[in-house]
Amino acid sequence: MSKRDYYDVLGLKKGASPDEIKKAYRGKAKELHPDRNTDNPRAEDQFKEANEAYEVLKDNDKKAAYDRYGHAAFEGGLGASAGRPGGPGFGGGAGGQGDFASAFSDVFDDLFGDFMGAGGRGGRQRAARGADLRYNLRVSLEEAYGGLHKTINVPTSVQCGPCSGSGAEGGAEPTTCPTCSGMGKVRATQGFFTVERTCPTCSGLGQIIKNPCKACGGNGRVQKDRALSVNIPAGVETGTRIRLAGEGEAGMRGGPPGDLYIFLEVAPHELFERDGVSLHCRVPVSMSAAALGGDIEVPTIDGGRSRVKIPAGSQSGRQMRLRGKGMPALRGGGTGDMFIELAVETPVNLTSKQRELLREFEALSEDNNPESKTFFSSVKSFWDSMKG
Ligand SMILES: [Zn+2]
Ligand SMILES: [Zn+2]
Question: Which fold, 6-116?
Fold first, then answer.
């Protein structure tokens, strides 16, 4: 079944504004809600369809991709341009790093959203959120193939133990800032205008600490290495980001922590070159093996080997495909193929016996080099035409 246009699904025209999209979705959601449509068996599917359309159109990045590429933006992404920045392949495992990261953050937002939001709401900022951290992780192509579980040591700041993050000696409660009476802001009148500024005494926190904790100097956090175990899914690429919500620096004075971003880099491999989910391997074959044909054994990324039949008379550059022997796509969606490219190797270091045999072979050659024959006949007619 072909998919309906997302705008059609919500009853919108292309180019609808975010407000229109939201409104249209609310209307549809009300109309199609399964609880209100117990006698309409199609309502559930239509409801899901509307949800899916809204998931895409409410998100600026996804909407832009959809406007440009249609549904193809979220399909396999196995096209030639998959994996390159700016190409389609948004939802595919091959490309779509951005989408992958945001999918992760969606998951984490679901899990931690409430917890994360707790510190930031409200007019007065009580405690500052900790900084986000970036951690660069280099993995081998084999690890990117199989996925891995890794423990990393992240130098970060954690909540101070002696003051339980409050920043006050002995864990005493901070007191209300006398300058701003706890508002975090002070007002100054300049001519006709009243200007609001962040309170200079408490830096906007609204509270001050009379006796700062000696262990942390009143920050409520101390430097420390933390060991984190991370799951790296199979199929990651250079540039893939994994967000670990709440694993960044601890906040100031008990504020919410920042996030940790793991930036992945996949190291180049000696044998395989990767292009999205495809792997390429250049395999040298001897001149006589290429001429006679036969079986060769090639390595595969899972550490195994595959037997490949070389047809007699294979030329340099001949490609062969090994289905399903490439890289896995990040979010499911199958595995790519491996391509081997034959490189016929001209023999070197000939013995006199070998030279003799090759001369004999050459003398016996007639229709053995059709490409040379075609080439030289073209060359001849080219020269003839130049003369004419
Ligand atoms: Zn203040
Ligand atoms: Zn402390």
Answer: Helix Hairpins (1.10.287)
